[in-house]
Amino acid sequence: MSFEKNILCIGAGYVGGPTMAMIAHKCPQYRVTVVDIDPERIAQWNSDDLPIYEPGLVEIVKAARGRNLFFSTEVEEGIKESEIIFVSVNTPTKTFGAGAGMAADLQYWDKTARQIRKHSESNKIIVEKSTLPVKTAQAMERILTSADNGIRFDVLSNPEFLAEGTAIKDLEDPDRVLIGSTQTREGLKARDVLVEIYSNWIRAERIITSNIWSSELSKLVANAFLAQRISSINSISALCEKADADVEEVARAVGMDSRVGSRFLSASVGFGGSCFKKDILNLVYLCRYYDLKEVADYWEGVVKINDYQKERFILNMLNIMFNTLANKRICLFGFAFKADTGDTRESPAIFVAKRLIEEKAKVVITDPKALKNAMKDLRDVAGEISYVEDPYEASAGCSAIAVMTEWKIYGDLDYKKIYRSMAKPAFIFDGRNILDHEKLFKIGFNVFPIGKPGLTHF
Ligand code: NAD
Ligand code: UGA
């Protein structure tokens, strides 16, 4: 069967997999291939047990796989056969050399550009899907055109705004799709090709275009603004605890101002995920690079408040549980960085588990989807850690429960039964404010939410 377009995506991760599955699902007239250097990941994409958990993903993958969606390790062949290449490789924070701990590590990105140059035999449109520092498209173009082999490459920026746990919904009905291009005749022509792909299912007014540097920068700024809201409300949660105010009431009152908006104002143990911290640090690094010290310090504050919030959570536990956690069993309800995903990258639960072990507590972890990743994250931590799928079994014999992830199931448990099985006095630290605190208090628990007065029997 012949297809209208051959689309390739390099990088079969949390972005590449779902994004390409959605294009294949909405556009049966295109052939979509996703390649990765990791053979195990590709084998999982070709199995019933996909490498990532995302509601609704397995259904669309199964429907399109083998029809117009293919997962493969044949990077070279994929490059040769495609006209449009999305690049969705990882861009983590650099851990070495200049900019370590701040700048983006662009080695995977650079390697991909060189692979594309080496194996291309015809003109191509290259789409930046990964989140990148401003001016990366220029570097990409320089690498691609350095072969001087007569092949034309047009580089576009098309950052991805999906959130994990709602990726399929976000891809199907996005707030906006952003496409940045150079403003040359060729750049605009390439941009129109990408606009046409998205137009298969997204309304024209939701597809916005811009110059390429604005597009690259908008992605970093979007994540910085979102994270800033969480740090803002988390900073206020600390004040609420001192002032006997209730952070949910404050967030509601503030968020009802339509200029502020009510979403993304849930106080928590801290934000996690692979991108917020990395992208803000990337923004901070850029500002420092351009000698904008005050701007860099302003945004760095968002990360500092997040670190403070996580540490504050642990110090509260220590203080409330009579200044010692040694030998006490503490159960973490949830390990994923948010609900509806198995992803644990930068999860606040990693920090909390490690700090509890430093205090010589015994840690029991339960999570419906993230136990495998939790085991990997904590494999080098010396201490008593156990992993138990069933939350009733996990909390039995524990002195405290700390809610790390807002999984819906934790709101629906039989807490009378849990209370009976726990060591006394029994504590609950609700790092997500998802439980019915009054009800738990009546059962006998000492309850400590975020940004609200604690309910204690002492
Ligand atoms: P990921 O680590 O899940 O996936 C990246 C994949 O790229 C890996 O499977 C890796 O093996 C592969 N890869 C690396 N180098 C390669 C190469 N040379 N050839 C082929 N494959 C290669 O990362 P992710 O979470 O999908 O993120 C990818 C990018 O998208 C990042 O820049 C991230 O900031 C951005 N982003 C992520 C999200 C998210 O929710 N995770 C959302 C929006 C944007
Ligand atoms: C975030 C952005 O929301 C996406 O738009 C972006 O594409 C993505 O980063 C990315 O670039 O990787 P994601 O990290 O998947 O998506 O999930 P979010 O829903 O943003 O949650 C991030 C963290 O903030 C989670 O730990 C969540 O629990 C926490 N959070 C969120 C709060 O603590 N309070 C809130 O009110 C909202």
TrEMBL record:
<feature type="binding site">
    <location>
        <begin position="11"/>
        <end position="16"/>
    </location>
    <ligand>
        <name>NAD(+)</name>
    </ligand>
</feature>
<dbReference type="InterPro" id="IPR014027">
    <property type="entry name" value="UDP-Glc/GDP-Man_DH_C"/>
</dbReference>
<dbReference type="InterPro" id="IPR036291">
    <property type="entry name" value="NAD(P)-bd_dom_sf"/>
</dbReference>
<dbReference type="InterPro" id="IPR008927">
    <property type="entry name" value="6-PGluconate_DH-like_C_sf"/>
</dbReference>
<comment type="function">
    <text>Catalyzes the conversion of UDP-glucose into UDP-glucuronate, one of the precursors of teichuronic acid.</text>
</comment>
<feature type="active site" description="Nucleophile">
    <location>
        <position position="275"/>
    </location>
</feature>
<protein>
    <recommendedName>
        <fullName>UDP-glucose 6-dehydrogenase</fullName>
        <ecNumber>1.1.1.22</ecNumber>
    </recommendedName>
</protein>
<dbReference type="GO" id="GO:0006065">
    <property type="term" value="P:UDP-glucuronate biosynthetic process"/>
</dbReference>
<dbReference type="Pfam" id="PF00984">
    <property type="entry name" value="UDPG_MGDP_dh"/>
</dbReference>
<dbReference type="InterPro" id="IPR001732">
    <property type="entry name" value="UDP-Glc/GDP-Man_DH_N"/>
</dbReference>
<dbReference type="InterPro" id="IPR014026">
    <property type="entry name" value="UDP-Glc/GDP-Man_DH_dimer"/>
</dbReference>
<feature type="binding site">
    <location>
        <position position="345"/>
    </location>
    <ligand>
        <name>NAD(+)</name>
    </ligand>
</feature>
<feature type="binding site">
    <location>
        <position position="36"/>
    </location>
    <ligand>
        <name>NAD(+)</name>
    </ligand>
</feature>
<feature type="domain" description="UDP-glucose/GDP-mannose dehydrogenase C-terminal">
    <location>
        <begin position="331"/>
        <end position="437"/>
    </location>
</feature>
<keyword id="KW-0560">Oxidoreductase</keyword>
<feature type="binding site">
    <location>
        <begin position="130"/>
        <end position="131"/>
    </location>
    <ligand>
        <name>NAD(+)</name>
    </ligand>
</feature>
<dbReference type="GO" id="GO:0051287">
    <property type="term" value="F:NAD binding"/>
</dbReference>
<dbReference type="GO" id="GO:0003979">
    <property type="term" value="F:UDP-glucose 6-dehydrogenase activity"/>
</dbReference>
<dbReference type="InterPro" id="IPR028356">
    <property type="entry name" value="UDPglc_DH_euk"/>
</dbReference>
<feature type="binding site">
    <location>
        <begin position="89"/>
        <end position="93"/>
    </location>
    <ligand>
        <name>NAD(+)</name>
    </ligand>
</feature>
<dbReference type="InterPro" id="IPR017476">
    <property type="entry name" value="UDP-Glc/GDP-Man"/>
</dbReference>
<keyword id="KW-0520">NAD</keyword>
<dbReference type="GO" id="GO:0006024">
    <property type="term" value="P:glycosaminoglycan biosynthetic process"/>
</dbReference>
<feature type="binding site">
    <location>
        <position position="41"/>
    </location>
    <ligand>
        <name>NAD(+)</name>
    </ligand>
</feature>
<dbReference type="InterPro" id="IPR036220">
    <property type="entry name" value="UDP-Glc/GDP-Man_DH_C_sf"/>
</dbReference>
<feature type="binding site">
    <location>
        <begin position="275"/>
        <end position="278"/>
    </location>
    <ligand>
        <name>NAD(+)</name>
    </ligand>
</feature>
<comment type="similarity">
    <text>Belongs to the UDP-glucose/GDP-mannose dehydrogenase family.</text>
</comment>
<comment type="pathway">
    <text>Nucleotide-sugar biosynthesis; UDP-alpha-D-glucuronate biosynthesis; UDP-alpha-D-glucuronate from UDP-alpha-D-glucose: step 1/1.</text>
</comment>
<dbReference type="Pfam" id="PF03721">
    <property type="entry name" value="UDPG_MGDP_dh_N"/>
</dbReference>
<dbReference type="Pfam" id="PF03720">
    <property type="entry name" value="UDPG_MGDP_dh_C"/>
</dbReference>
<feature type="binding site">
    <location>
        <position position="164"/>
    </location>
    <ligand>
        <name>NAD(+)</name>
    </ligand>
</feature>
